[in-house]
Amino acid sequence: MVLLHVLFEHAAGYALFAVREVEEISLLLPQVEESILTIGKFHNVVKLVAFTPFKSAQSALENINAVSEGILHEDLRLLLETSMPAKKKKALLGVADAKIGAAILEELGYQCQTGGVVAEILRGIRLHFHALVKGLTAQSASKAQLGLGHSYSRAKVKFNVNRVDNMIIQSISLLDQLDKDINTFSMRVREWYGYHFPELIKIVSENYTYCRLAKFIGNRKELSEESLEGLEEIVMDSAKAQTILEASRSSMGMDISPLDLINIESFSSRVISLSEYRKGLQEYLRSKMSQVAPSLSALIGEVVGARLISHAGSLTNLAKYPASTVQILGAEKALFRALKTRGNTPKYGLIFHSTFIGRAAAKNKGRISRYLANKCTIASRIDCFSEVPTSVFGDKLREQVEERLAFYETGEPPRKNLEVMKEAVVEANEVVAEVKRKQEKREKKKKKREKEKKREQQRLEALAAAAEENSVLETEVKEEEKKKKKKKKKEKARDSEED
pTM (2 decimals)? Predict the structure, then answer.
């Protein structure tokens, strides 16, 4: 008869249970479900064979990470080797996860079972675990679960491979939101200030400049020749500044109260500060993209590259996508609508915002988008899986796209992919070697500084020790002098008594 054992992984440790009357249980599954609810009946179903508690919180975290990845940890191996029956053919081990079951079968040779009656028994063990293991209370078991849950989640967040991508995703989302908000607020400033100075809307079309002018001019009646220099500084055009001055003198706008002007100026300041923050955010995004995905940003631009990463969820996800998916990424609605109506599928999604597709002729847009998607996929994979990311491959891929555009227009044949990639590999190796050399120099300087600090600290400690010794010697000398003085006084007192 095959002996069924069940392995249960708890936050407190590993437990191995033997299941009684396995043949009857496999036939009477509803009875197993009923017996789970009461501890008395469940004691007749399972019996604790062995329990190995984790030595520390760090050990528990290592074991749970190994279980989640389907790796057999040494602690679990030791438990199974010592507690499972010697005859492996007659032993059957029930496990919760198929991955760890496969690892046990491969390394130890025990047949493993998941699901069915095993899942029901594990449910019962989970419910009554603190009662099945002696010395373990429900409170201590819940504390162990809480502690391990916190440390496991913290480790997952800390070692998240997408943690750098997350900054790019948040930045591009915020950038898009700011664009919408700045546009809405600028329209509000135009409408509000337009009651007082309607002619300014036609003269200045750019939102940021309009808000700066609204704040600078204020009441149009107070605008004079003296303000011309300030106007020129904002609009960067003397003719336009003169036009604004002339328009202010013959404006058809209504008069406005000082209180209304204060509110308009205050709101304009907010819009200006938002626009300036947006510029700073774009610089931050550019620097992040050059660190995380230099090849992709060199090929297609920082903003479009960031949008692709954001839409895919991470750089790793984008690297896993085929070129056909990258080509229509962002045009999912159009794709499914086309499939539903049996119409033409979209040729491009987010990559349409790159300069290449705009420069291509109408008949070549689909061809260049397919070629560009192919190169984007290569660039994202290079960025994702290379140890030292560089923009060399991105620059070379960009050159290839340019050559392909020229080929569509003029018929001039582009270079072969093999030649370009060989050049790129040579250049990339040089760049990587240079980067590593700089890193080594930095490390040497860091070590040198640490050594100097250590020496300085030792010197200061030695000086402090010497100063302490000197102070001790000084106190000893002073005490000796005091003793001598006391002796002399006593001797003088004796001499005077004798006299």
Answer: 0.63
